Amino acid sequence: MICVSIGRGRHRHMIAEHKHLAENGMVLVELRLDYIQGGVQLKRLLADRPTPVIVTCRRAIDGGRWEQSEESRLLLLRAAIVEGADYIDLEDDIATKVPRYGRTKRIISHHDFHKTPSDLSALHRKLSAMDADIVKIATMANHPTDSLRMLELVRGSKVPTVGICMGDIGVPTRILAGRVGAPFTYATFHGDRVLAPGQIGWRQMRDVYRYDSITSATQIYGVVADPVAHSLSPIVHNGALAAAKIDAVYLPFRVPAEQIDEFLSDASRWPLSGLSVTIPHKETILRLVAQQDDLVKAIGAVNTLAFGPSRTGVVSSISGFNTDATAAIESLDAALLDHGQTSPEEVLNVKTALVLGAGGAARALAFGLRKRGIEVTVASRTLDRGKKIAAEVGCKAVDWQARYRMPHDCVVNATPVGMHPNVDETPFDKEHLRPYMVVFDTVYNPENTLLMKEARAIGCRLVTGVDMFVRQAATQFRIWHNQAAPEGVMRDSLKRATASAKNPE
Ligand code: NAP
User: How far apart are CA 332 and CA 320, in angstroms?
Assistant: First the structure.
Protein backbone atom coordinates (compact mmCIF):
# COMPACT_ATOMS: atom_id res chain seq x y z
CA MET A 1 0.00 0.00 0.00
CA ILE A 2 1.22 3.51 -0.84
CA CYS A 3 0.57 6.27 1.69
CA VAL A 4 0.64 9.65 -0.02
CA SER A 5 1.81 12.58 2.12
CA ILE A 6 0.05 15.86 1.50
CA GLY A 7 1.61 19.08 2.72
CA ARG A 8 -0.32 22.18 1.68
CA GLY A 9 -0.70 25.59 3.28
CA ARG A 10 -4.46 25.86 2.73
CA HIS A 11 -7.19 23.54 3.86
CA ARG A 12 -8.97 23.61 0.55
CA HIS A 13 -5.85 22.52 -1.33
CA MET A 14 -5.23 19.69 1.10
CA ILE A 15 -8.85 18.53 0.78
CA ALA A 16 -8.75 18.78 -3.03
CA GLU A 17 -5.53 16.74 -3.23
CA HIS A 18 -6.98 14.15 -0.86
CA LYS A 19 -10.09 13.84 -3.04
CA HIS A 20 -7.98 13.57 -6.18
CA LEU A 21 -5.89 10.76 -4.65
CA ALA A 22 -8.99 8.82 -3.59
CA GLU A 23 -10.42 9.18 -7.10
CA ASN A 24 -7.18 7.72 -8.43
CA GLY A 25 -7.33 4.67 -6.24
CA MET A 26 -5.04 5.70 -3.38
CA VAL A 27 -6.26 4.21 -0.11
CA LEU A 28 -4.13 5.90 2.56
CA VAL A 29 -3.13 9.54 2.93
CA GLU A 30 -0.92 11.36 5.42
CA LEU A 31 -2.14 14.85 6.31
CA ARG A 32 0.83 16.99 7.32
CA LEU A 33 -0.83 19.49 9.62
CA ASP A 34 2.46 21.36 10.11
CA TYR A 35 2.16 22.68 6.53
CA ILE A 36 -1.19 24.39 7.16
CA GLN A 37 -0.85 28.14 7.59
CA GLY A 38 -2.92 29.72 10.34
CA GLY A 39 -5.09 27.64 12.65
CA VAL A 40 -5.71 24.00 11.75
CA GLN A 41 -9.40 23.17 11.26
CA LEU A 42 -9.35 19.47 12.08
CA LYS A 43 -13.07 18.87 11.59
CA ARG A 44 -12.88 20.32 8.10
CA LEU A 45 -10.02 17.99 7.13
CA LEU A 46 -11.41 14.85 8.73
CA ALA A 47 -15.21 15.12 8.44
CA ASP A 48 -15.85 13.71 4.96
CA ARG A 49 -12.45 12.20 4.36
CA PRO A 50 -12.49 9.94 1.32
CA THR A 51 -9.78 7.56 2.65
CA PRO A 52 -8.27 6.66 6.02
CA VAL A 53 -5.65 9.17 7.15
CA ILE A 54 -2.47 9.40 9.15
CA VAL A 55 -2.39 12.68 11.04
CA THR A 56 1.13 14.06 11.43
CA CYS A 57 2.42 17.37 12.73
CA ARG A 58 6.20 17.67 12.53
CA ARG A 59 8.53 20.06 14.29
CA ALA A 60 11.49 21.56 12.42
CA ILE A 61 13.90 19.15 14.17
CA ASP A 62 12.01 16.27 12.58
CA GLY A 63 11.95 17.87 9.14
CA GLY A 64 8.59 19.61 9.58
CA ARG A 65 7.25 23.17 9.51
CA TRP A 66 5.46 23.49 12.85
CA GLU A 67 6.40 26.87 14.33
CA GLN A 68 3.99 27.18 17.24
CA SER A 69 4.54 25.88 20.76
CA GLU A 70 5.05 22.23 21.58
CA GLU A 71 2.09 22.45 23.93
CA SER A 72 -0.23 23.49 21.11
CA ARG A 73 1.14 20.69 18.90
CA LEU A 74 0.34 18.08 21.56
CA LEU A 75 -3.14 19.57 21.97
CA LEU A 76 -3.68 19.30 18.23
CA LEU A 77 -2.56 15.68 18.11
CA ARG A 78 -4.82 14.76 21.04
CA ALA A 79 -7.70 16.56 19.33
CA ALA A 80 -7.07 14.59 16.14
CA ILE A 81 -7.42 11.37 18.12
CA VAL A 82 -10.68 12.60 19.63
CA GLU A 83 -11.89 13.44 16.10
CA GLY A 84 -11.28 9.80 15.17
CA ALA A 85 -8.17 10.05 12.97
CA ASP A 86 -7.37 6.58 11.68
CA TYR A 87 -3.67 6.83 12.56
CA ILE A 88 -1.67 9.35 14.55
CA ASP A 89 2.08 9.77 14.08
CA LEU A 90 3.86 10.36 17.39
CA GLU A 91 7.60 10.95 17.57
CA ASP A 92 9.31 8.76 20.16
CA ASP A 93 9.89 11.62 22.63
CA ILE A 94 6.17 12.47 22.83
CA ALA A 95 4.71 8.97 22.56
CA THR A 96 4.09 8.69 26.29
CA LYS A 97 2.54 12.16 26.46
CA VAL A 98 -0.24 11.30 24.02
CA PRO A 99 -2.14 8.27 25.30
CA ARG A 100 -4.07 5.73 23.27
CA TYR A 101 -7.74 6.55 22.87
CA GLY A 102 -10.59 5.13 20.78
CA ARG A 103 -9.76 3.34 17.56
CA THR A 104 -6.91 5.58 16.47
CA LYS A 105 -3.80 3.53 15.74
CA ARG A 106 -0.44 4.76 16.98
CA ILE A 107 2.56 5.13 14.65
CA ILE A 108 5.62 5.66 16.82
CA SER A 109 8.24 7.38 14.70
CA HIS A 110 11.89 8.29 14.82
CA HIS A 111 13.79 10.52 12.39
CA ASP A 112 17.48 11.08 11.90
CA PHE A 113 18.40 13.47 9.09
CA HIS A 114 22.14 12.86 9.41
CA LYS A 115 22.75 9.13 9.64
CA THR A 116 21.33 5.66 10.05
CA PRO A 117 22.17 4.61 13.63
CA SER A 118 24.46 1.61 13.93
CA ASP A 119 22.12 -0.25 16.28
CA LEU A 120 18.79 -0.15 14.49
CA SER A 121 17.48 -3.14 16.45
CA ALA A 122 17.88 -1.37 19.79
CA LEU A 123 16.06 1.68 18.40
CA HIS A 124 13.32 -0.55 17.06
CA ARG A 125 12.90 -2.32 20.41
CA LYS A 126 12.59 1.04 22.16
CA LEU A 127 9.92 2.30 19.74
CA SER A 128 7.99 -0.99 19.77
CA ALA A 129 7.71 -0.76 23.55
CA MET A 130 5.85 2.58 23.34
CA ASP A 131 2.44 1.04 22.73
CA ALA A 132 3.06 1.08 18.98
CA ASP A 133 0.67 -0.33 16.41
CA ILE A 134 3.21 0.59 13.75
CA VAL A 135 6.86 1.60 14.13
CA LYS A 136 8.21 4.13 11.66
CA ILE A 137 11.96 4.74 11.33
CA ALA A 138 13.24 7.26 8.78
CA THR A 139 16.99 7.84 8.74
CA MET A 140 19.51 9.29 6.32
CA ALA A 141 21.39 6.73 4.22
CA ASN A 142 25.04 7.66 3.74
CA HIS A 143 25.97 4.27 2.38
CA PRO A 144 24.00 1.58 0.50
CA THR A 145 24.62 -0.72 3.49
CA ASP A 146 22.41 1.62 5.53
CA SER A 147 19.54 0.82 3.17
CA LEU A 148 20.23 -2.88 3.43
CA ARG A 149 20.29 -2.80 7.23
CA MET A 150 16.98 -0.97 7.20
CA LEU A 151 15.34 -3.49 4.87
CA GLU A 152 16.65 -6.36 6.97
CA LEU A 153 15.28 -4.74 10.12
CA VAL A 154 11.82 -4.42 8.60
CA ARG A 155 11.92 -7.98 7.29
CA GLY A 156 12.74 -9.35 10.76
CA SER A 157 10.39 -7.21 12.87
CA LYS A 158 7.28 -8.59 14.57
CA VAL A 159 5.60 -5.21 15.07
CA PRO A 160 4.53 -3.84 11.66
CA THR A 161 7.34 -1.49 10.67
CA VAL A 162 7.87 1.14 8.02
CA GLY A 163 11.65 1.56 7.74
CA ILE A 164 12.83 4.10 5.22
CA CYS A 165 16.21 5.54 4.41
CA MET A 166 16.18 9.13 3.24
CA GLY A 167 18.28 10.75 0.51
CA ASP A 168 19.14 9.45 -2.97
CA ILE A 169 21.01 6.48 -1.54
CA GLY A 170 17.94 5.40 0.40
CA VAL A 171 15.43 5.44 -2.50
CA PRO A 172 15.46 1.60 -2.90
CA THR A 173 14.16 1.24 0.68
CA ARG A 174 11.05 3.22 -0.25
CA ILE A 175 10.35 1.05 -3.29
CA LEU A 176 11.17 -2.29 -1.64
CA ALA A 177 9.26 -1.58 1.60
CA GLY A 178 6.42 -3.96 0.72
CA ARG A 179 8.85 -6.63 -0.46
CA VAL A 180 10.18 -6.92 3.11
CA GLY A 181 6.76 -6.78 4.75
CA ALA A 182 6.23 -3.09 5.62
CA PRO A 183 2.50 -2.25 5.91
CA PHE A 184 2.97 0.70 3.51
CA THR A 185 5.49 3.10 2.01
CA TYR A 186 5.37 6.86 1.76
CA ALA A 187 5.19 8.86 -1.48
CA THR A 188 4.44 12.50 -2.23
CA PHE A 189 1.63 14.11 -4.17
CA HIS A 190 4.10 15.62 -6.67
CA GLY A 191 7.53 14.16 -7.44
CA ASP A 192 8.97 17.67 -7.44
CA ARG A 193 7.35 18.75 -4.14
CA VAL A 194 9.06 16.43 -1.69
CA LEU A 195 8.42 16.54 2.03
CA ALA A 196 11.54 14.54 2.89
CA PRO A 197 14.80 13.93 0.99
CA GLY A 198 14.57 11.09 -1.55
CA GLN A 199 10.77 10.92 -1.64
CA ILE A 200 9.20 10.09 -4.96
CA GLY A 201 5.78 10.92 -6.35
CA TRP A 202 2.90 8.48 -5.96
CA ARG A 203 2.38 8.16 -9.71
CA GLN A 204 5.98 7.13 -10.19
CA MET A 205 5.72 4.72 -7.26
CA ARG A 206 2.55 3.18 -8.68
CA ASP A 207 3.10 3.35 -12.44
CA VAL A 208 6.88 3.11 -12.89
CA TYR A 209 7.84 0.89 -9.96
CA ARG A 210 4.46 -0.90 -9.71
CA TYR A 211 4.84 -0.86 -5.93
CA ASP A 212 1.74 -2.89 -5.20
CA SER A 213 2.85 -5.79 -7.40
CA ILE A 214 6.24 -6.17 -5.66
CA THR A 215 6.37 -9.26 -3.45
CA SER A 216 9.11 -11.17 -1.68
CA ALA A 217 9.58 -13.15 -4.92
CA THR A 218 10.13 -10.07 -7.11
CA GLN A 219 13.63 -10.01 -8.59
CA ILE A 220 15.76 -6.91 -8.14
CA TYR A 221 17.58 -5.17 -10.98
CA GLY A 222 18.84 -1.63 -11.19
CA VAL A 223 21.28 0.98 -12.36
CA VAL A 224 24.34 1.75 -10.27
CA ALA A 225 25.66 5.28 -10.70
CA ASP A 226 26.59 8.49 -8.89
CA PRO A 227 24.59 10.64 -9.37
CA VAL A 228 21.63 8.51 -10.36
CA ALA A 229 18.55 10.68 -9.90
CA HIS A 230 18.60 11.88 -13.54
CA SER A 231 18.78 8.35 -14.98
CA LEU A 232 15.96 7.33 -17.27
CA SER A 233 16.93 3.65 -17.13
CA PRO A 234 14.32 2.89 -14.41
CA ILE A 235 11.56 4.27 -16.64
CA VAL A 236 12.74 2.30 -19.67
CA HIS A 237 13.43 -1.02 -17.92
CA ASN A 238 10.38 -0.98 -15.64
CA GLY A 239 8.18 -0.19 -18.65
CA ALA A 240 9.65 -3.18 -20.47
CA LEU A 241 9.29 -5.48 -17.44
CA ALA A 242 5.62 -4.55 -17.11
CA ALA A 243 4.98 -5.11 -20.82
CA ALA A 244 6.73 -8.50 -20.72
CA LYS A 245 4.92 -9.43 -17.47
CA ILE A 246 8.18 -10.28 -15.69
CA ASP A 247 8.10 -10.30 -11.89
CA ALA A 248 11.04 -7.94 -11.39
CA VAL A 249 11.69 -4.33 -10.47
CA TYR A 250 14.49 -2.03 -11.64
CA LEU A 251 15.80 0.48 -9.09
CA PRO A 252 18.10 3.51 -9.00
CA PHE A 253 21.11 2.71 -6.80
CA ARG A 254 23.22 5.73 -5.98
CA VAL A 255 26.60 4.32 -5.05
CA PRO A 256 29.59 6.67 -4.65
CA ALA A 257 32.88 5.43 -6.17
CA GLU A 258 34.45 4.56 -2.83
CA GLN A 259 31.47 2.39 -1.81
CA ILE A 260 31.18 0.21 -4.90
CA ASP A 261 33.27 -2.71 -3.57
CA GLU A 262 31.09 -3.14 -0.50
CA PHE A 263 27.91 -2.68 -2.52
CA LEU A 264 28.83 -5.53 -4.86
CA SER A 265 30.01 -7.78 -2.06
CA ASP A 266 26.52 -7.36 -0.53
CA ALA A 267 24.77 -8.39 -3.77
CA SER A 268 23.15 -11.48 -2.25
CA ARG A 269 21.75 -9.56 0.73
CA TRP A 270 19.47 -7.46 -1.49
CA PRO A 271 19.49 -9.86 -3.52
CA LEU A 272 20.57 -8.39 -6.87
CA SER A 273 19.90 -10.17 -10.16
CA GLY A 274 21.38 -7.65 -12.58
CA LEU A 275 22.72 -4.12 -12.85
CA SER A 276 23.28 -1.47 -15.47
CA VAL A 277 26.57 0.27 -14.73
CA THR A 278 27.22 3.89 -15.53
CA ILE A 279 29.22 6.96 -14.46
CA PRO A 280 31.59 6.69 -12.56
CA HIS A 281 31.81 2.90 -12.34
CA LYS A 282 32.08 1.59 -15.92
CA GLU A 283 35.83 1.13 -15.87
CA THR A 284 36.66 0.88 -12.17
CA ILE A 285 34.14 -1.89 -11.53
CA LEU A 286 36.01 -4.23 -13.91
CA ARG A 287 38.39 -5.45 -11.21
CA LEU A 288 35.39 -6.80 -9.28
CA VAL A 289 33.91 -8.75 -12.19
CA ALA A 290 35.18 -12.32 -12.45
CA GLN A 291 33.62 -13.27 -15.78
CA GLN A 292 34.00 -10.75 -18.58
CA ASP A 293 32.74 -11.22 -22.12
CA ASP A 294 35.14 -10.62 -25.01
CA LEU A 295 33.86 -7.11 -25.68
CA VAL A 296 34.38 -6.10 -22.05
CA LYS A 297 37.92 -7.44 -22.17
CA ALA A 298 38.64 -5.65 -25.43
CA ILE A 299 37.00 -2.34 -24.48
CA GLY A 300 38.02 -2.25 -20.83
CA ALA A 301 34.61 -0.99 -19.72
CA VAL A 302 31.48 -2.75 -18.50
CA ASN A 303 27.91 -1.44 -18.54
CA THR A 304 25.96 -4.59 -17.59
CA LEU A 305 26.30 -7.06 -14.74
CA ALA A 306 24.43 -10.31 -14.31
CA PHE A 307 24.49 -12.07 -10.95
CA GLY A 308 24.40 -15.83 -11.02
CA PRO A 309 22.66 -17.62 -8.18
CA SER A 310 24.19 -20.66 -6.56
CA ARG A 311 21.99 -23.55 -5.45
CA THR A 312 21.47 -21.83 -2.11
CA GLY A 313 20.25 -18.71 -3.85
CA VAL A 314 23.33 -16.76 -2.80
CA VAL A 315 25.08 -14.80 -5.54
CA SER A 316 28.01 -16.92 -6.61
CA SER A 317 29.28 -15.13 -9.68
CA ILE A 318 29.20 -11.79 -11.41
CA SER A 319 29.36 -11.65 -15.20
CA GLY A 320 30.14 -8.41 -17.03
CA PHE A 321 29.00 -7.36 -20.49
CA ASN A 322 29.28 -4.25 -22.65
CA THR A 323 26.14 -3.47 -24.62
CA ASP A 324 27.21 0.10 -25.53
CA ALA A 325 29.62 -0.70 -28.36
CA THR A 326 27.30 -2.92 -30.39
CA ALA A 327 24.37 -0.58 -29.71
CA ALA A 328 26.38 2.38 -31.01
CA ILE A 329 27.46 0.63 -34.19
CA GLU A 330 24.00 -0.83 -34.84
CA SER A 331 22.50 2.67 -34.42
CA LEU A 332 25.01 4.10 -36.86
CA ASP A 333 24.32 1.33 -39.38
CA ALA A 334 20.56 1.69 -39.02
CA ALA A 335 20.67 5.46 -39.47
CA LEU A 336 22.84 5.22 -42.57
CA LEU A 337 20.66 2.54 -44.12
CA ASP A 338 17.65 4.73 -43.37
CA HIS A 339 19.31 7.48 -45.32
CA GLY A 340 19.43 5.50 -48.51
CA GLN A 341 22.64 3.52 -48.28
CA THR A 342 21.54 0.01 -48.87
CA SER A 343 24.58 -2.11 -48.25
CA PRO A 344 27.16 -2.46 -45.52
CA GLU A 345 29.78 -1.46 -48.12
CA GLU A 346 28.10 1.90 -48.55
CA VAL A 347 27.80 2.26 -44.80
CA LEU A 348 31.54 1.88 -44.82
CA ASN A 349 31.74 5.10 -46.81
CA VAL A 350 32.35 6.59 -43.42
CA LYS A 351 36.12 6.42 -43.42
CA THR A 352 37.12 8.77 -40.61
CA ALA A 353 35.42 9.54 -37.30
CA LEU A 354 36.07 12.04 -34.54
CA VAL A 355 35.01 10.82 -31.09
CA LEU A 356 34.55 13.61 -28.55
CA GLY A 357 35.33 12.51 -24.99
CA ALA A 358 37.46 9.75 -23.53
CA GLY A 359 35.24 8.02 -20.98
CA GLY A 360 33.49 4.66 -21.03
CA ALA A 361 31.15 5.55 -23.91
CA ALA A 362 33.96 7.03 -26.01
CA ARG A 363 36.05 3.93 -25.45
CA ALA A 364 33.19 1.65 -26.55
CA LEU A 365 32.52 3.80 -29.61
CA ALA A 366 36.15 4.08 -30.63
CA PHE A 367 36.43 0.31 -30.32
CA GLY A 368 33.29 -0.35 -32.37
CA LEU A 369 34.27 2.13 -35.10
CA ARG A 370 37.78 0.69 -35.33
CA LYS A 371 36.30 -2.78 -35.72
CA ARG A 372 34.52 -1.42 -38.77
CA GLY A 373 37.86 -0.32 -40.18
CA ILE A 374 37.06 3.36 -39.62
CA GLU A 375 39.99 5.65 -38.75
CA VAL A 376 39.25 7.16 -35.36
CA THR A 377 40.52 10.28 -33.62
CA VAL A 378 39.62 10.81 -29.97
CA ALA A 379 39.50 14.44 -28.80
CA SER A 380 39.47 14.81 -25.06
CA ARG A 381 39.70 17.40 -22.36
CA THR A 382 42.04 15.13 -20.41
CA LEU A 383 44.51 14.15 -23.11
CA ASP A 384 45.95 11.23 -21.12
CA ARG A 385 42.58 9.46 -21.12
CA GLY A 386 42.36 9.89 -24.89
CA LYS A 387 45.91 8.59 -25.33
CA LYS A 388 45.09 5.52 -23.28
CA ILE A 389 42.13 4.71 -25.54
CA ALA A 390 44.26 5.39 -28.61
CA ALA A 391 46.90 2.93 -27.45
CA GLU A 392 44.32 0.30 -26.62
CA VAL A 393 42.09 0.45 -29.69
CA GLY A 394 44.62 1.66 -32.23
CA CYS A 395 43.51 5.20 -33.02
CA LYS A 396 44.74 8.80 -32.70
CA ALA A 397 44.32 11.10 -29.71
CA VAL A 398 44.27 14.88 -29.80
CA ASP A 399 43.48 17.42 -27.16
CA TRP A 400 40.08 19.11 -26.95
CA GLN A 401 41.18 22.33 -28.68
CA ALA A 402 42.46 20.35 -31.69
CA ARG A 403 39.08 18.80 -32.49
CA TYR A 404 38.43 21.08 -35.48
CA ARG A 405 41.87 20.71 -37.01
CA MET A 406 40.96 17.92 -39.46
CA PRO A 407 37.58 17.32 -41.15
CA HIS A 408 35.92 13.94 -40.49
CA ASP A 409 33.13 11.96 -42.14
CA CYS A 410 31.55 11.26 -38.78
CA VAL A 411 31.48 13.22 -35.50
CA VAL A 412 30.39 11.43 -32.33
CA ASN A 413 29.66 13.21 -29.07
CA ALA A 414 30.53 10.90 -26.17
CA THR A 415 30.65 13.66 -23.55
CA PRO A 416 27.71 14.87 -21.46
CA VAL A 417 27.89 18.32 -23.14
CA GLY A 418 24.37 19.32 -24.23
CA MET A 419 22.67 17.04 -21.74
CA HIS A 420 19.79 18.32 -19.63
CA PRO A 421 19.86 20.89 -18.03
CA ASN A 422 22.72 22.35 -20.13
CA VAL A 423 20.72 22.16 -23.33
CA ASP A 424 22.23 25.35 -24.78
CA GLU A 425 25.69 23.82 -24.98
CA THR A 426 27.25 21.92 -27.85
CA PRO A 427 30.60 20.13 -27.95
CA PHE A 428 31.12 20.91 -31.66
CA ASP A 429 30.63 24.37 -33.09
CA LYS A 430 28.20 24.56 -36.02
CA GLU A 431 30.75 26.46 -38.14
CA HIS A 432 32.67 23.22 -38.44
CA LEU A 433 29.72 21.00 -39.42
CA ARG A 434 29.46 20.00 -43.10
CA PRO A 435 26.48 18.51 -44.96
CA TYR A 436 28.37 15.30 -45.84
CA MET A 437 28.98 14.48 -42.17
CA VAL A 438 27.24 11.84 -40.09
CA VAL A 439 26.66 13.39 -36.65
CA PHE A 440 26.02 11.06 -33.73
CA ASP A 441 25.13 12.46 -30.32
CA THR A 442 25.10 9.81 -27.59
CA VAL A 443 23.26 12.21 -25.26
CA TYR A 444 19.65 11.03 -25.05
CA ASN A 445 18.16 13.56 -22.68
CA PRO A 446 17.09 15.53 -24.61
CA GLU A 447 17.10 13.59 -27.88
CA ASN A 448 17.09 16.80 -29.85
CA THR A 449 20.29 18.34 -28.47
CA LEU A 450 21.68 21.61 -29.79
CA LEU A 451 24.26 19.56 -31.73
CA MET A 452 21.46 17.53 -33.36
CA LYS A 453 19.46 20.68 -34.18
CA GLU A 454 22.42 22.43 -35.78
CA ALA A 455 23.52 19.31 -37.67
CA ARG A 456 19.98 18.82 -38.98
CA ALA A 457 19.82 22.44 -40.18
CA ILE A 458 23.02 21.93 -42.16
CA GLY A 459 21.73 18.70 -43.72
CA CYS A 460 23.97 16.19 -41.93
CA ARG A 461 22.82 12.61 -41.41
CA LEU A 462 21.88 12.12 -37.76
CA VAL A 463 22.14 9.34 -35.21
CA THR A 464 20.53 10.02 -31.86
CA GLY A 465 21.36 8.90 -28.34
CA VAL A 466 17.80 7.60 -27.95
CA ASP A 467 18.41 4.99 -30.60
CA MET A 468 21.65 3.86 -28.96
CA PHE A 469 20.10 3.92 -25.50
CA VAL A 470 17.18 1.72 -26.49
CA ARG A 471 19.46 -0.76 -28.26
CA GLN A 472 21.87 -1.09 -25.33
CA ALA A 473 18.96 -1.44 -22.88
CA ALA A 474 17.30 -4.06 -25.10
CA THR A 475 20.51 -6.12 -25.11
CA GLN A 476 20.69 -5.86 -21.32
CA PHE A 477 17.10 -7.07 -21.13
CA ARG A 478 17.96 -10.08 -23.31
CA ILE A 479 20.98 -10.94 -21.14
CA TRP A 480 18.97 -10.77 -17.91
CA HIS A 481 15.62 -12.20 -18.94
CA ASN A 482 16.63 -14.50 -21.78
CA GLN A 483 13.96 -13.13 -24.12
CA ALA A 484 13.66 -10.35 -26.67
CA ALA A 485 12.95 -6.91 -25.22
CA PRO A 486 9.81 -4.96 -26.11
CA GLU A 487 11.89 -2.29 -27.87
CA GLY A 488 8.88 -0.24 -28.94
CA VAL A 489 7.76 0.07 -25.32
CA MET A 490 11.28 1.05 -24.29
CA ARG A 491 11.51 3.71 -26.98
CA ASP A 492 8.08 5.15 -26.16
CA SER A 493 8.83 5.25 -22.42
CA LEU A 494 12.12 7.04 -23.04
CA LYS A 495 10.63 9.55 -25.48
CA ARG A 496 7.69 10.29 -23.18
CA ALA A 497 10.02 10.80 -20.24
CA THR A 498 12.40 13.11 -22.08
CA ALA A 499 9.56 15.07 -23.67
CA SER A 500 7.37 15.54 -20.61
CA ALA A 501 9.88 16.00 -17.82
CA LYS A 502 12.13 19.00 -17.84
CA ASN A 503 13.76 17.48 -14.79
CA PRO A 504 13.04 13.77 -14.98
CA GLU A 505 13.36 11.65 -11.88
P1 NAP B 1 32.47 9.32 -18.51
O2 NAP B 1 33.17 8.02 -18.44
O3 NAP B 1 32.34 10.15 -17.30
O4 NAP B 1 33.22 10.22 -19.62
C5 NAP B 1 32.79 11.51 -19.92
C6 NAP B 1 33.77 12.13 -20.89
O7 NAP B 1 33.28 13.40 -21.26
C8 NAP B 1 35.16 12.35 -20.29
O9 NAP B 1 36.13 12.18 -21.28
C10 NAP B 1 35.09 13.81 -19.87
O11 NAP B 1 36.33 14.45 -19.84
C12 NAP B 1 34.28 14.39 -20.99
N13 NAP B 1 33.66 15.65 -20.62
C14 NAP B 1 32.81 15.87 -19.60
N15 NAP B 1 32.42 17.16 -19.59
C16 NAP B 1 33.09 17.76 -20.63
C17 NAP B 1 33.13 19.09 -21.12
N18 NAP B 1 32.40 20.06 -20.56
N19 NAP B 1 33.90 19.35 -22.18
C20 NAP B 1 34.63 18.36 -22.75
N21 NAP B 1 34.65 17.10 -22.32
C22 NAP B 1 33.87 16.79 -21.28
O23 NAP B 1 31.02 9.11 -19.12
P24 NAP B 1 30.50 8.05 -20.22
O25 NAP B 1 29.95 6.86 -19.54
O26 NAP B 1 31.57 7.88 -21.23
O27 NAP B 1 29.28 8.85 -20.83
C28 NAP B 1 29.48 10.03 -21.59
C29 NAP B 1 28.17 10.45 -22.21
O30 NAP B 1 27.77 9.46 -23.14
C31 NAP B 1 27.02 10.51 -21.18
O32 NAP B 1 26.82 11.80 -20.75
C33 NAP B 1 25.80 9.99 -21.92
O34 NAP B 1 25.01 11.07 -22.33
C35 NAP B 1 26.37 9.32 -23.14
N36 NAP B 1 26.01 7.89 -23.16
C37 NAP B 1 24.93 7.55 -23.90
C38 NAP B 1 24.56 6.23 -24.01
C39 NAP B 1 23.38 5.89 -24.83
O40 NAP B 1 22.98 4.72 -24.81
N41 NAP B 1 22.81 6.81 -25.56
C42 NAP B 1 25.29 5.24 -23.35
C43 NAP B 1 26.41 5.62 -22.61
C44 NAP B 1 26.74 6.95 -22.53
P45 NAP B 1 37.31 14.36 -18.55
O46 NAP B 1 37.94 13.00 -18.61
O47 NAP B 1 38.25 15.49 -18.76
O48 NAP B 1 36.44 14.54 -17.35
Answer: 24
- 112-147 pLDDT, tens digit each: 999 999 999 999 999 999 999 999 999 999 999 999
Q: Measured from the CA of 471, which atom of ligand 1 is nearest?
A: 40
241-322 and 325-463: same fold? yes
Are 162 and 154 in contact by the 8 Å Cβ rule? The answer is yes
Q: For ligand 1, is residue 494 a contact (CB within 6 Å)?
A: no
Q: Verify whether ligand 1 is closer than 6 Å to residue 279 (CB atom).
A: yes
The ligand 1 atom at the shortest distance from the C-alpha of residue 283 is 2
Q: Which CATH superfamily is domain 325-463 in?
A: NAD(P)-binding Rossmann-like Domain (3.40.50.720)
Give catalytic residue positions.
111, 136, 282, 324
* Nearest protein CA to atom 1 of ligand 1, as residue: 359
Of 406, 428, 408, 407, give the one whose Cα is nearest residue 418. 428
Enter the pTM of the model. Answer: 0.91
- Using a 6 Å cutoff on CB, does residue 147 contact ligand 1? no
Instruction: Please state, in angstroms and rounded to a whole number, the distance separating the CA atoms of residues 351 and 372.
Output: 9
Helix (H) or strand (E) holding 150, with range, is: helix 144-156
CATH top class, domain 241-322: alpha beta
The domain ranges of the chain are: 2-216, 241-322, 325-463
Q: Which fold has domain 2-216?
A: TIM Barrel (3.20.20)
Q: Which of 42, 65, 69, 70 is nearest to 55 (CA)?
A: 42
pLDDT tens track for 428-473? 999 999 999 999 999 998 899 999 999 999 999 999 999 999 999 9
